[in-house]
Design a protein that fits this description.
Elements (H helix, E strand, L loop, with lengths): L1 H53 L5 H5 L10 H17 L3 E7 L5 E6 L18 H9 L3 E3 L10 E9 L5 E10 L1 H37 L1
Antiparallel strand pairs: 1-2, 1-5, 3-4, 4-5
Helix pairs in contact: 1-5
Length: 218
């Protein structure tokens, strides 16, 4: 009789503890996933803020004077590029660049802060618009791309802001790129932590249940 009562008591405590452990596990998982959302939100806000700020680096008159490949390397081009380089360094961004729409509806880079052979500017062939950049061009809104990478530029996340003329028309799009290192590291770490947390809490509960039974048999 006493043995049956003890077994029922053990089972009752086990199920109660199982519920508590499961609840703790779910709560922990939610909290860890919330960290990912926070990192995403921080990156999004930063890109939106910095891209807006970058629109002040060039005047409408200066931008309209850069129209063809012949304008690459001119004193005005070099002057603007120096501003972009300084801006990128001060704000810890990888790339900052200006784009406009061609008559064919493609994206033409105008100028960026890159001094290497991979620089994109008026000497670069037009390319199709990135979805978020095109949305900025059409609707005059600030947009951020955290998920879809442009081919050849993997590892970079981007923010896009409209560049308006004096009449309020969008005549260009300003892009800002930063690395996705923080997001990737956070995802990788939490991808490992969440299963480990589940296994650990579940394992502790099983061990608690087995040990009393073993003690009783001894």
């Amino acid at each position: 009789m006493k043995s049956k009562f003890q077994m029922r008591l053990v089972l009752m405590i086990f199920f109660i503890s199982s519920g508590l452990v499961m609840g703790l596990s779910v709560f922990t998982s939610i909290q860890l996933r919330g960290i990912v959302d926070t990192v995403h939100g921080d990156a999004e806000r930063r890109l939106m803020s910095v891209s807006r700020y970058a629109t002040s680096l060039v005047t409408e008159r200066e931008l309209t004077m850069l129209q063809s490949v012949d304008d690459v390397g001119t004193p005005l081009f070099d002057k603007i590029q120096e501003r972009l380089i300084e801006f990128a360094d001060e704000n810890e961004v990888t790339y900052v660049y200006f784009m406009r729409e061609t008559q064919d509806g493609l994206c033409q880079y105008i100028i960026d802060n890159d001094l290497s052979e991979s620089a994109v500017n008026l000497s670069t062939s037009p390319i199709p618009w990135e979805a978020k950049a095109y949305e900025t061009l059409r609707h005059g809104t600030v947009n951020v791309e955290l998920e879809v990478y442009q081919e050849g530029w993997e590892g970079l996340i981007s923010g896009f802001a409209p560049f308006f003329d004096y009449d309020g028309n969008v005549i260009a799009v300003v892009g800002v790129d930063i690395t996705d290192e923080n997001i990737v590291q956070t995802r990788t770490t939490l991808t490992l932590l969440i299963p480990l947390t589940d296994c650990h809490t579940g394992g502790c509960n099983c061990e608690w249940f087995v040990e009393p039974s073993y003690t009783q048999q001894g």
